[in-house]
Amino acid sequence: MILNLNPEELSRNRVSVSVNYNAMVYITSWDEFVERSVQLFRADPDSTRYVMKYRHCDGKLVLKVTDNRQG
Amino acid sequence: MVLLQLDPFLNELTSMFERSTKLGSVWVTLKRSSLKSKVQRNKLAAAGEAIEFRCLIRATDGKKTISTSVGPKDHQRFQASYATILKAHMTALKKRERKDKKKPAEADKREGSSKRLKKS
């Protein structure tokens, strides 16, 4: 599950959740991301991890919470 | 991968952010960990002993990987320092364009006051 804080997407007031082939969910709403992250962690705390990727040159911050499961 | 103490980890993380400003990325991973194997955890659980969970934090810029482990006692101090570092170095992010609800209300007030002045 990913929250992609891309500046262009942030400036648009829209919420979209899309699922790709390996069940990665892209969320642009912060509140929904928090809620879903808490659900993931509570379901399986030992295999849940939070990853932050920051790329200064592109002005991009991607937050990912995963429980390592596919599908 | 080097398991560092809190302050050296934060210093190295700062350096990573500074090195990757023009090119590259920084990844930070946080995960709950007891720093014990499953066998050890099962033994503790069977004995009815409480397992102290810690937060394992890893950071990498693609070349070098550093890590630290934060216990419940140090967690608040770590979060404060970590947040300061992030705020200082994540300067490339644009602020969200929010539609201010206050501005139209203020404009109405101004119009109202100007109308009153005209009447008098």
From TrEMBL, chain A:
Transmembrane segments: none annotated. One of its GO terms (cellular component) is signal recognition particle. It comes from the Eukaryota. Residues 28-71 form the SRP9 domain. Coiled coil: none annotated. Signal peptide: none annotated. GO terms for biological process: SRP-dependent cotranslational protein targeting to membrane. GO terms for molecular function: 7S RNA binding. InterPro entries: Signal_recog_particle_SRP9/14, SRP9-like, SRP9_dom. This is SRP9 domain-containing protein.
Automatic annotation (TrEMBL), chain B:
Its main location: cytoplasm. The keyword Cytoplasm applies. Transmembrane segments: none annotated. Keywords: Cytoplasm, Ribonucleoprotein, RNA-binding, Signal recognition particle. It comes from the Eukaryota. Residues 93-120 are annotated as: Disordered. The keyword Transport does not apply. Belongs to the SRP14 family. This is Signal recognition particle 14 kDa protein. It comes from Glycine max.
